[in-house]
Amino acid sequence: MHELPLVFFTVLAQASAGLLILSVINQLINRKATTDQALFKMGVACLILVALAGGSAILHLGRPFRAMNALFGTGRSPMSNEIVSCAVYGGLLFISLAVMYLRPKLKGLLLLLRVITAVSAVVLIVLIPRVYTLLTIPQWDTHFTSYQMILAAFTSGGALALIWQPTRLNMVITVFAAVLGFLIIPSYMAHLSASSPEMLMQGMGFFDAKLALYAVALVLAVYSYKKRIVPVALSSGVVFIVAELAGRIAFYDLWSIGM
């Protein structure tokens, strides 16, 4: 269970970043499509997710009170870069929400802050997979690691966005990310069977669970979009997150004793 905090950290941070990015893209495309109240609620949801992610990351440390030491490796350590980028994203998100709540009439400043926060979310999504591109772990040192982690931001984040922004763009991105996730599985399994067949077999239950949950979440997402049913959209987002958690457990088990 040692890596379980990292499972929650990566998945929840990616879901938060994906949700924020999509909310900003939709706002830029059609500013009248989403109310200020909906944007604020989406921001709060993003903040809760990234706060839970950060708390999970701290639990992974042997000595949580020395978490600040990670800052000393910024620029040269992928893990430090990941932690700093998450902190920057969370800080910008908090500031944008504070301005939105205290100074709602400052529309130009609010949009600028949200765009900057979205850029930091993109940086976070890109930096997280770089922690795991290690030559010493061939089953991780593959482009499939980046593909799956980036897609995770837009399956769960896209489904959650449908709660407040049931737009065609969010629906298309959610479906595209989920379908692409399905399509890369055969090649990914072939890679793992060549690099780590025994560990692959041990983790097949989690991989199978991820695929099954993907299918359920995708059906819920499409149904929620067509019928505009908020609880169904929420269920889709939750199921996607659980699916990504299952897949991430299998991912971490590829180099350690199974959870």
From TrEMBL:
Record key words, sorted: Membrane, Transmembrane, Transmembrane helix
Pfam families reported in the protein's UniProt record: DmsC (PF04976)
Gene Ontology cellular component annotations, sorted alphabetically: dimethyl sulfoxide reductase complex; plasma membrane
GO BP, sorted A to Z: anaerobic electron transport chain
Membrane spanning stretches: 6-26, 38-62, 82-102, 109-132, 144-164, 171-189, 209-225, 232-251
MF terms (GO), sorted A to Z: dimethyl sulfoxide reductase activity
UniProt protein name: Anaerobic dimethyl sulfoxide reductase chain C
